[in-house]
Q: What sequence folds into this?
């Protein structure tokens, strides 16, 4: 009697974490190779990759360990097809999975300047991705609590439904002069999917904290800018999650706190205030994504979804 039944009763599949077919730039990706068999055979695994743009070898963000393959902080250089080969220790049976193919559409909304908070009257621009096909243009959407989702089809109505004006240089860019109705969440939608999203707060107060609108990478230096509308307030205090972390004396209307070699522990809600705390900014979230040297550590593999052929769309992170 053979060790296995007919060859077609054996199946190798690839599963992905996090669940779903859309992976965003900067996320951790974990592939798992699974052999469906009633045998007690022990399997050894080998991973291979094909790519149109070869990167350095070995890549420190890529780690193959047994039946798992992890990619930390996904970038566009990770595009390509990944295969798993499983070999039994009890026979010559070798199974080869279908490829897991990474496609990376340019689904990136751009905000300029890249800050979550702006003063009323200041200008900011929102630009939707460049279409990668002959499909209709992108639709810029905005949502504010208590309001309906507002939308505008780029290239057609000059941003007017959202209270903006089309850029003279780029027809896919909306230019806004910040007003109360411009606070909210912005994203783009089109035939190619949805872009990343960004939350913008328009302040009618006298102080704001400018933090990066999108996630920063571990190991980077991050500057947080506390900006006063007018006046010199002598001392400025910065807070994280409500706790005072830094006080600086300055006569400038813009006071900066720099976080060197940022880590995931630096994530949180930040705000700044005058020393007497008579004026303080709204809180602003600082998001930090894994750096090149940080491995992926999924909490559980119970939620894995299995594919014999897996197509993963990688989009820009928020």
A:
């Amino acid at each position: 009697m053979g060790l296995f039944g007919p060859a077609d009763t054996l199946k190798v599949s690839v599963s992905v974490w996090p669940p779903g077919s859309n992976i965003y730039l900067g996320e951790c990706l974990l592939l798992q190779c699974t052999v469906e068999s009633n045998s007690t055979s022990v399997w050894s695994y080998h991973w291979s990759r094909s790519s149109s743009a070869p990167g350095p070898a070995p890549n420190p963000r890529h780690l193959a360990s047994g039946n798992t393959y992890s990619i930390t902080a996904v970038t566009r250089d990770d595009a390509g097809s990944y295969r798993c080969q499983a070999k039994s220790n009890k026979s010559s049976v070798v199974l080869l999975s279908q490829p897991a193919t990474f496609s990376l559409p340019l689904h990136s909304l751009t905000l300029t300047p890249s800050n979550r908070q702006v003063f009323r009257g200041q200008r900011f621009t929102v630009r939707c991705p460049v279409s990668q096909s002959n499909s209709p243009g992108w639709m810029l959407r905005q949502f504010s609590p208590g309001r309906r989702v507002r939308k505008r089809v780029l290239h057609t109505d000059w941003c007017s439904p959202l209270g903006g004006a089309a850029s003279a240089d780029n027809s896919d860019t909306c230019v806004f002069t910040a007003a109360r109705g411009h606070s909210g969440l912005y994203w783009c939608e089109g035939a190619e999917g949805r872009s990343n999203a960004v939350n913008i707060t328009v302040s009618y107060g006298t102080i704001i904290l400018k933090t990066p609108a999108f996630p920063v990478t571990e190991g980077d230096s991050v500057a947080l800018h506390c900006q006063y509308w007018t006046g010199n307030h002598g001392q400025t205090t910065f807070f994280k999650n409500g706790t005072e972390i830094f006080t600086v004396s300055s006569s400038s209307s813009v006071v900066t706190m720099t976080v060197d070699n940022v880590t995931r522990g630096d994530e949180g809600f930040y705000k700044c205030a005058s020393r007497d705390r008579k004026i303080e900014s709204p809180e602003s979230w600082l998001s930090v994504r894994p750096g090149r040297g940080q491995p992926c550590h999924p909490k559980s593999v119970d939620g894995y979804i299995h594919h014999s052929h897996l197509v993963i769309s990688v989009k820009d992170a928020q």
Remarks:
- Confidence is low (pLDDT under 50) at residues 53-57, 153-158, 298-318.
- The first strand starts at residue 11 and ends at 17.
